[in-house]
Specification:
This protein has 474 residues and is of the alpha/beta class. The chain contains 13 helices and 19 strands. It is globular, with a radius of gyration of 23 Å. Bound molecules: S-adenosyl-L-homocysteine, iron/sulfur cluster and FE3-S4 cluster. The site of FE3-S4 cluster (F3S) has 11 residues, from helix 2 and helix 6.
Length: 474
């Protein structure tokens, strides 16, 4: 038997095993419904990135499949927090909200509370929850999320806190139920984990080593999604540019994109995240030639100072980054560039921050997510000398202001033009308006009705308001 067949067989076996647990859960859920005269309600709360959002769709898929009614109200019969630990404030939010859940549970003794996701891969977190949050029923991690049906089943069968955390895994289990948040767009994992070990970052420790999915599994999943009404997909990975290196038959990310492009009925392709160190000329060529790849590239800078980039283990210099951004803009002038920037990495001086500001001015991002560096236990940077908080705040405000000023100008450059927008939802503040997303990821609000949701329509971009447009259909 070849490795590939063996692997897909074990994935199929595991999916079948989980299906049996789902059948068992259905019985418990039916019993609850008999006793209470209603279905149990489940609430899934997601913290963190797109990968977590996709994982939550898998959790919801299973909960729905076994008979739960899905609600956004945390006063429910089953509540699960899918956690993030990339910065400490993400952790603090979870602890804060757990306090509230305790009150709900006191009034609803049958309530089950579960925690999963990246925070759970940290032993100190598990210790803290055991000690101070003993009312939690289930803890599991990122590597065994495919066992959710089995663990859910166990919460009906045993008392006390159930903890199942794996250190790592090479397993990728396909074909479990998924419930998408949007009917017309979807994220798709193309790889899991990360091997880069940027010195500030916890992700490689909590998500494990890089593993790519087989291209045929990815393509089949996208084909199924398109058959189910999806027009836009986002390929997900911590570093999509290194996709395929560990496959039995290695394949580059650019080659995968070429295959995805061929899928009939699929209209838009996005991907996240691109690490600047691995962005190939081949990828730029594929993006340039593509009719479906959106005109948006998220290219995290982190810092503009080559000295700091080296200490971060980012494997590029300021000059290399600028050269890359320049090359992309030369080849594809309408490509929107967005980025992540961190302020306050150990040892960062005011002069280093000026370098970051210089890159922002030169690249002219369409948008940038700015973060204050957060010390993560166990990462190399946590042991380095930290920058005083006051100084970090001052520098952060400067960086944020530069981002806002330059992005405002950049985003406004299409004012007066007509562009196609994928209509996503009714505007949050004004129900007479619809919200659509342009290929370059900018949002546009325009008069319309719900029937347009999921369609790609032409919109005139009448007025730019900072990071979004007001417009009308043409
Ligand atoms: N794989 C992606 C990033 C994933 S984490 C990449 O390499 O770009 C998303 C963002 O969180 C990062 O780009 C970084 O800007 C930020 N981040 C990661 N660790 C952080 C830390 N310790 N403190 C503050 N921000 C951090
Ligand atoms: Fe973290 Fe760096 Fe991996 Fe991104 S590439 S997830 S920042 S270690
Ligand atoms: Fe957070 Fe985990 Fe994503 S730490 S950013 S949810 S991979």
């Amino acid at each position: 038997m070849t490795e590939e067949i063996k692997r897909s067989q074990s994935s199929a076996d595991e999916a079948a095993r989980q299906q049996q647990f789902m059948d068992k859960c259905k019985v418990y859920v039916a019993d609850f419904a008999d006793r209470h005269g209603r279905s149990p309600r489940a609430c899934v709360v997601t913290f963190g990135c797109q990968m977590n959002a996709r994982d939550s769709e898998k959790l919801i898929g299973i909960l729905h499949h076994v008979g739960y009614e899905i609600t956004e109200d945390e006063n429910a019969d089953f509540v699960i927090y899918n956690t993030c630990t990339v910065r400490d404030n993400a952790n603090q939010r979870v602890y804060g909200r757990l306090g509230e859940l305790k009150g709900y549970k006191r009034r609803n003794p049958e309530m089950k509370i579960a925690l999963c996701g990246c925070m759970m891969q940290e032993p100190t977190v598990i210790e803290k929850i055991r000690k101070s949050y003993s009312f939690v029923d289930l803890l599991f991690g990122t590597h065994n999320i495919f066992k959710f049906a089995e663990l859910l089943c166990a919460t009906f069968e045993q008392e006390g806190m159930l903890i199942d955390i794996w250190k790592d895994t090479d397993q990728i289990v396909e074909d479990l139920p998924v419930e998408r948040k949007y009917a017309f767009k979807s994220g798709i994992n193309i790889m899991f984990g990360c091997n880069n070990f940027c010195t500030y970052c916890i992700v490689p420790y909590v998500r494990g080593r890089e593993r790519s999915r087989e291209p045929k599994d990815i393509l089949r999943e996208i084909e199924d999604l398109v058959a189910d009404g999806v027009v836009e997909i986002m390929l997900l990975g911590q570093n999509v540019n290194s996709y395929g290196k560990n496959l039995e038959h290695p394949m580059s990310f650019a080659e995968l994109l070429r295959e995805v492009e061929k899928i009939e009925g699929l209209q838009r392709i996005r991907f996240m995240t691109s690490h600047p160190k691995d962005l190939s000329d081949e990828l730029i060529r594929v993006m340039k030639e593509s009719k479906k790849i959106c005109r948006h590239l998220h290219l995290p800078l982190q810092a503009g100072s080559s000295r700091i980039l080296k200490a971060m283990n980012r494997c590029y210099t300021k000059e290399q980054y600028l050269e890359l951004a320049d090359k992309i803009r030369r080849e594809i002038p309408d490509m929107a560039l967005t980025t992540d920037i961190m302020v306050g990495f150990p040892g960062e001086t005011a002069r280093d921050v000026e370098e970051t500001i210089d890159v922002i001015r030169k690249v002219q991002y369409d948008n940038a997510f700015t973060f204050i560096y957060s010390q993560r236990t166990g990462t190399p940077a946590a042991a380095m000398e930290q920058v005083p908080e006051e100084e970090v705040k001052r520098n952060f405000d400067k960086v944020l202001k530069t981002v806002q000023d330059t992005a405002r100008e950049r985003v406004a450059r299409y004012q007066g033009q007509v562009m196609d927008a994928l209509v996503e939802e009714v505007n949050e503040n004004d129900p007479t308006l619809m919200t659509g997303r342009l290929s370059n990821n900018t949002l546009v609000h325009f008069p319309g009705d719900k029937s347009l949701i999921g369609q790609i329509v032409d919109v005139s971009l009448d007025e730019c308001h900072g990071f979004y447009y007001m417009g009308h259909r043409v």
